[in-house]
Amino acid sequence: MCGIVGYVGPRQAAPILLAGLEKLEYRGYDSAGLAVIDDGKLQVAKAKGRLQTLIDQTENGRHPAGSIGIGHTRWATHGEPSDTNSHPHLSQSGRFAVVHNGIIENYQALQTWLADKGFHIVSETDSEVIAHLIEYYAERSDDDLIDVLIKTIGRLDGSFALGVLDTKRPDRFLAVRKASPLIVGIGSGENYIASDIPALLPLTRDVYLVDDNEIAEITAAHIQLFNLDQEPIEKDVYHIDWDVSAAEKGGYEHFMMKEMAEQPRVLGETVRSYVHGGQIAFGLAEFSAAELKALRHIHVVACGSAYHAGVYAKYELERLTGIPVNVDIASEFRYRNPLVGPDDLVIVISQSGETADTLEALKESRRKGARVLAILNVIGSSMAREADDIIYTIAGPEIAVATTKAFVCQVTVITMLAHHFAYLLGRLSDREMADCCDELLQLPALAENVLQDMSLYQEMASRLYNQTDMYFIGRSSDFAMSLEASLKLKEISYIHSEACPAGELKHGPISLIEKNTLVVAMSTEARLAEKMKSNIAEVKTRGAHTMVVTTRALQSLFQGVADDIVLLPDARPSQLPVLSVIPMQLFAYYVAVLNGRDVDKPRNLAKSVTVE
Ligand code: G6P
Questions:
Q1: What atom in ligand 1 is closest to the CA of residue 402?
Q2: Atom 2 of ligand 1 has which residue's CA nearest to it?
Q3: Which atom of ligand 1 is nearest to the CA of 358?
Q4: pLDDT tens digit string along 206-263?
Q5: Where are the domains of the chain?
Q6: Which CATH architecture does the domain made up of 254-451 adopt?
Q7: Please, which of 87, 130, 180, 187 could form a disulfide with 161 given CB 3.0 to 4.6 Å?
Q8: Distance between CA atoms of 353 and 605, rounded to whole angstroms?
Q9: What is the pLDDT of residue 244?
């Protein structure tokens, strides 16, 4: 969702801004723009559509000239994607330019207030008011722009990361954030801002992670952070130890394929970070048996795929710990005055650590006294800074909008967490714990096995890619993986798809089954396989084309009822959720490719959903 970049230094800004925006494309956007100060004046280029249009318009950044600038990719919330609604927005006199990521909730009231003061609003966005407010306060005082910016953000309700250019000070720009991501990059003789690390990787490895209500003043030689009382803040430099190749396609056609192929490696890294000598330990999340015994409830809260990992967490944590577990979509949780308190543990799950609804659910839970454990992929993200305990998935940077490697790492962390809690509660013996650790350590090799012959999934996709509707069914943890399989297909192929618990089929979805409708049954749990077989038979009788994802051990049960069988290696229950979802990621990928979709950047979707 919206990305911002900024540059000041001796070089021409435009090519650097464009390169930065290119690295932020993965966040999702529908227009892009940049502004630079050249010869004391703002020069702006904006274009609806792909970044390439802006690159063409500026002849690859050959113009405008100028060595200080800000850039933006916009994911439309208020006002359609258009040149006018694109950022940067200028103040009325043209003195200030602003880029904004987030949502200004009181923008209509501010528009009315500004109109009264003689300001003319030209776009339909919630962001433009910020540029005019800055000008309003700047015109009425001799205050420095830092003071003006503090007054301005005091008027804003909502979330923002801002970059601000002032033509009267062509040597510096300002940035500030509240509940939207922002980092400041430390260069040598030049400095930068960005929404996210990939934009800065080719430029620097040293950054400041800006916190809410901190203002950064950035010149080519100097970076200074201030709090709202204008007191300077000292911050630790955060060193990024990613490999540049982590944010490159490395020969793959799409990031999504690269990231799926990386799954064995990142699963191994995640498991080996927490499994040692037949035991599981999470350095940043330590619980005692007494603390776990005192828990009344566990609440798992997340959005999108992370929510599906949460559904799996409900099954797995309840089964192993005996503690009641609720699972919630963050946007529903935060607005219903959730019944959480000091006796509860809230587990939030998020790849980015920035999803607005999950972040707010986390804050609300802490306000109510609950302990919050965050399962996150991005170190230093907003949720990492707010949670009591953290377990990182070691998936590395994920660029494709549709998550794959981060999701399987979330599922694996949950498996580890559930076993760890059960062990601490005395519900698992040393032997059972050691077996679980062995199973986890074998997971990368099993995942490799599933990924070995991609042509299987390609072949199935080539027969089934022109379906208009697909249905996914499963029971227990297979249901959780069905939810994810269905979402994966829907988000990148644009084919209508639903997942339902197999037992619910008869209460509605079965009325939609016609001749050749594809129904995918995920069935890896032996105790539920007979029931799944009956469900498959029910849809087959009504003409469905049936596919089952199952193990070699259960294969014979489905012969005759399943038209296609996706065979998983025989594996333990702790391994099967991850193994069963990988073929469905690949199937979704090939269906999307065959339909000519933009796999890494599906329409209307964003990687990091920083607005609610
Ligand atoms: C977006 C992404 C999904 C992701 C969801 C939650 O919708 O496209 O892939 O699952 O946000 O994001 P999070 O970063 O909190 O896991």
A1: 9
A2: 607
A3: 15
A4: 999 999 999 999 999 999 999 999 999 999 999 987 776 777 888 899 999 999 999 9
A5: 3-240, 254-451, 453-594
A6: 3-Layer(aba) Sandwich (3.40)
A7: 180
A8: 17
A9: 66
Q: What are the residue numbers of the active site?
A: 2, 607
Arch. (CATH architecture) of 3-240: 4-Layer Sandwich (3.60)
144 Cα: distance to centroid of ligand 1 (angstroms): 39
State in Å: Cα 304 to ligand 1 middle. Answer: 5
Pick the atom of ligand 1 nearest to 491's CA.
8
Give per-residue pLDDT as tens, 382-408: 999 999 999 999 999 999 999 999 999
Q: Ligand 1 centre and the CA of 302: distance in Å?
A: 9
Query: Which residue's C-alpha comes closest to atom 5 of ligand 1?
Result: 304
A 10 A CB-CB count for 29 gives: 24
Structure confidence by residue, pLDDT tens digits, 569-582:
989 999 999 999 99
The position carrying tokens 């980092």 is 183
pLDDT at 195 over 80: yes
Residue type present at position 302: A
Q: Whose CA is nearest to atom 15 of ligand 1?
A: 350
- Taking CA 523 as the corner, what is the angle to CA 509 and CA 589, rounded to the nearest 5 degrees? 75
Rounded to an integer, what distance in angstroms lies between the CA atom of residue 191 and that of residue 172? 10
Helix (DSSP H) and strand (DSSP E) numbers for the chain: 19, 27
Burial zone of 40 (CB within 10 Å; 0-12 exposed, 13-18 middle, 19+ buried):
exposed
**Is residue 23 a contact partner of residue 198, using CB atoms and an 8 Å limit?**
yes
As a whole number, mean pLDDT of residues 272-285 equals 93
Using the mean position of ligand 1's atoms as its centre, give its distance from the Cα of residue 203 in Å: 27
User: 254-451 and 453-594 share one CATH topology?
Assistant: yes
DSSP string over 502-569: GGGGGGTGGGG--TT-EEEEE---GGGHHHHHHHHHHHHHTT-EEEEEEEGGGHHHHBTTBSEEEEEP
Which CATH superfamily does the domain covering 453-594 fall into? Glucose-6-phosphate isomerase like protein; domain 1 (3.40.50.10490)
